[in-house]
Amino acid sequence: MIELPVIAPKAETASTHSKKPSWLRVKLPIGQEYARVRNIVDEYKLHTICQSGNCPNMGECWGAGTATFMILGNVCTRSCTFCAVATGRPNEYDADEPRRVAEAIKLMGVKHAVITSVNRDELKDRGAEVWYQTVVQVKEASPTTTIETLIPDTKGNWDALYRMIEGGQEVVSHNMETVERLYRNVRPQAKYARSLEQTKRTKEFGKRTKSGIMLGLGETQEEVFKAMDDLVENGLDVLTLGQYLQPTKMHHEVIEWVHPDTFAMYKEEGLKRGLQYVESGALVRSSYHAEKHI
């Protein structure tokens, strides 16, 4: 039996502190390298989760010449209450997108590329063929570039899953996002057990597996520990933990600001429970320091 750790300092309750705590302050995205990356993204008419998801690390990552590309459009068929990406009926996908992504990654000189997508539940293959072609063409254009693919929930379409992950990427990520109890409010069209099974099948396929959980949505420490155990049991290698930030007032409220010491405790606890790598911090997002997760 695993001993419970010493309880870390309690988070600040968000409702009594309207301003973000000091540890969540970030620099505005500036600099020549940031401008160069943005120009390439605009020129090739690409979508990035950095922009669509209002990522707090965009300045740091783009300033280093890296970005997380979002394929299959920028309109999602899901209505997760935490996400800034638009919800609706997507347009027909662009079959030329894999080529444009591959060319942009080559131009940017990216050593490790992260690729993600919206959910495309209306497509029979969930967009799997576009996923496959994107990875293959990036590898052809930039043979030394390593790839992480942050894939959506395939709703149990395992043929689609296997097509998505057989292109040659080194890491396959699928985010749990939150603890089991909060799924109905946070990921209403997803299922906790199904996402766990997707991770398990990905591991059995032979891939390095990764997932992410947001904190500050109302979860308890015991629920986070259980999620860690469930993920380890289903073959997870890498876990990211970060503070949830409310995109707009229409989205799920922030219940608490999790203290940096608590994030440090979760990292230590995750490693004790069998995870190979844990990236844990208030500003951590799925693709933050992704090059270290290979």
TrEMBL record:
Pathway(s) it belongs to: Protein modification; protein lipoylation via endogenous pathway; protein N(6)-(lipoyl)lysine from octanoyl-[acyl-carrier-protein]: step 2/2
List residues binding [4Fe-4S] cluster 1: 50, 55, 61, 287
Task: Report the SMART domains cross-referenced here.
Answer: Elp3 (SM00729)
Q: Which cofactor does it need?
A: [4Fe-4S] cluster
Annotated positions binding [4Fe-4S] cluster 2: 76, 80, 83
- List each copy of the Radical SAM core domain by range: 62-276
| Top-rank taxon, per record | Bacteria
Compartments, as annotated in UniProt: Cytoplasm
Entry note: cofactor: Binds 2 [4Fe-4S] clusters per subunit. One cluster is coordinated with 3 cysteines and an exchangeable S-adenosyl-L-methionine.
**Keyword Zinc-finger found:** no
The enzyme class is transferase
UniProtKB keywords: 4Fe-4S, Cytoplasm, Iron, Iron-sulfur, Metal-binding, S-adenosyl-L-methionine, Transferase
Answer yes or no on keyword Transferase.
Answer: yes
One annotated GO molecular function? lipoate synthase activity
Q: Which reaction does it catalyse?
A: [[Fe-S] cluster scaffold protein carrying a second [4Fe-4S](2+) cluster] + N(6)-octanoyl-L-lysyl-[protein] + 2 oxidized [2Fe-2S]-[ferredoxin] + 2 S-adenosyl-L-methionine + 4 H(+) = [[Fe-S] cluster scaffold protein] + N(6)-[(R)-dihydrolipoyl]-L-lysyl-[protein] + 4 Fe(3+) + 2 hydrogen sulfide + 2 5'-deoxyadenosine + 2 L-methionine + 2 reduced [2Fe-2S]-[ferredoxin]
Major subcellular site? cytoplasm
- Cross-referenced Pfam families, in alphabetical order? LIAS_N, Radical_SAM
Concerning InterPro entries, the annotation shows:
Aldolase_TIM, Elp3/MiaA/NifB-like_rSAM, LIAS_N, Lipoyl_synth, rSAM, rSAM_sf
- Stated EC number for the protein is 2.8.1.8
Q: Which PANTHER family match?
A: LIPOYL SYNTHASE, LIPOYL SYNTHASE, MITOCHONDRIAL
HAMAP family reported in the protein's UniProt record? Lipoyl_synth (MF_00206)
Protein family according to the UniProt entry: Belongs to the radical SAM superfamily. Lipoyl synthase family.
Supply the name of the protein: Lipoyl synthase
Instruction: Tell me which species this is from.
Output: Arcicella gelida
Q: Which gene carries the instructions for this protein?
A: lipA
